[in-house]
Specification:
Pathway: Porphyrin-containing compound metabolism; protoheme biosynthesis; protoheme from protoporphyrin-IX: step 1/1. The protein is of the alpha/beta class. The chain contains 12 helices and 8 strands. The protein has 2 domains: 187 residues, 3-Layer(aba) Sandwich (Rossmann fold), CATH 3.40.50.1400; 135 residues, Rossmann fold (3-Layer(aba) Sandwich), CATH 3.40.50. Helix 6 runs antiparallel to helix 11 and helix 9 runs parallel beside helix 10.
């Protein structure tokens, strides 16, 4: 049995490509309890996500969570599932295609190969990396679509990449984009999306930035996520010229009984409506690069109901950046910035000289017995 894998076919005259891995959290294969059970098992078994000793967590996971949560989660996914499947996956495919087009059109020579991989579910990060290898990628930039770094997201993505590359015979050169929470292009795209929403729908009395939550102890253990969320919101508010007191930051999607980052989004929307008399509230989720269950069902559905049940008149959800042109422009620029120094990202390349050298290499290899 071979311990290490390699590209199926190799040619000495092949022009190396710059591989780009676009990664996101993942999605079940279908909105059914059995598919959700598989997905939740993979997600909640990750020690980066649940930082508890296995002896404490396994009885909870297997004895309660995987017995009760899949049915409820499947019903929620059915509400957002489209003709082309999970919104996170369909948007992710468009994002990968758009980034590929931009890399090929920009002032860089390539060639480029862009693949989408999911940390949990399909297409997996391992399969995406293998497709990049077959496309001739000997240098890879990984872009986890988490603007704000967390060990539970970006850190876990790196784990999955490392686990796959540990099995490769020829390990590629590799760079990881760890965060882009204050990238100018990303901030401008968020500000643009808010301005456009206000131009279409009118401006609410308050703007709420809702980020995915995490246990509070992760912050005190050294995770920068909370600080980076605050900075993103502050920079967008500054870009929009918002006055203090006209915008808020909250954290959604808490799980379990321990304390998570506060304030909680569901409690915040209730407080704004019931205690502060806010009638029209705009909500944006800057930590989500693509719309998914947590934005479409939790914010645009569940939290809207909380707001309206407590005296609010309209909670308007501002969509994620998804495949907006300015969003994909910013991501393509970010990738090229991190690929600086690699020949594929250069502004010019002597193709004639390079192909001649590769042809000579191939000829020398054939004289030594190589097949290609």
């Amino acid at each position: 049995m071979k311990l290490y894998s390699a590209k199926r076919s190799f040619r000495h005259d092949e022009v190396p490509a710059l591989g780009v891995l676009i990664a996101n959290l993942g999605t079940p294969d279908e909105p059914t309890p059995s598919a959700l059970r598989r997905y939740l098992h993979a997600f909640l078994s990750d020690p980066r996500v649940i930082e508890l000793p296995r002896w404490r967590w396994w009885p909870i996971l297997y004895g309660m969570v995987l017995r009760t949560r899949p049915k409820k989660s499947a019903e929620a996914y059915q509400e957002v599932w489209g003709e082309d499947g999970s919104p996170l996956l369909s948007i992710g495919k468009r994002q990968a295609e758009g980034i590929q087009q931009r890399l090929e059109a920009r002032n860089a020579v390539g060639p480029f190969a862009v693949e989408l991989g999911m940390r949990y579910g399909n297409p997996s990060i391992a399969s995406a990396l293998r497709r990049l290898r077959e496309a001739g990628a000997r240098r890879i930039v990984a872009l986890p679509l988490y603007p704000q770094y967390s060990a539970s997201t970006t850190g876990s993505t790196f784990d999955a990449v490392a686990q796959e590359l540990m099995r490769w015979r020829w390990v590629p050169e590799f760079r990881l984009i760890g965060q882009y929470h204050d990238d100018k292009g990303y901030i401008e795209a968020l500000a643009n999306s808010i301005r456009e929403h206000w131009a279409r729908e009118g401006q609410g009395e308050r703007l709420l930035f809702s980020f995915h939550g995490m246990p509070k102890r992760y912050l005190f253990d050294g995770d920068p996520y909370h600080c980076q969320c605050q900075k993103t919101a502050r920079l967008v508010a500054q870009r929009l010229g918002l006055a203090p007191g006209s915008w808020d930051v909250a954290f959604q999607s808490r799980f379990g009984n321990e304390e998570w980052l506060k304030p909680y989004t569901d409690e915040t929307v209730v407080q704004l409506a019931r205690d502060e008399g806010v009638k029209r509230l705009d909500v944006i989720c800057p930590g989500f690069a693509a719309d998914c269950l947590e934005t479409l069902e939790e914010i645009a559905g569940e939290n809207r109901e909380y707001f309206e049940a407590n005296g609010g008149e309209r909670l308007a959800y501002i969509p994620a950046l998804n495949d907006r042109h300015d969003h994909l422009d910013a991501l393509a620029r970010l990738i090229l910035q991190h690929a600086q120094g690699w020949p594929e990202a250069a502004a010019s390349r002597d193709w004639e000289e390079e192909r001649w050298q590769l042809a000579e290499t191939a000829e020398r290899a054939r004289r030594m017995g190589a097949q290609a």
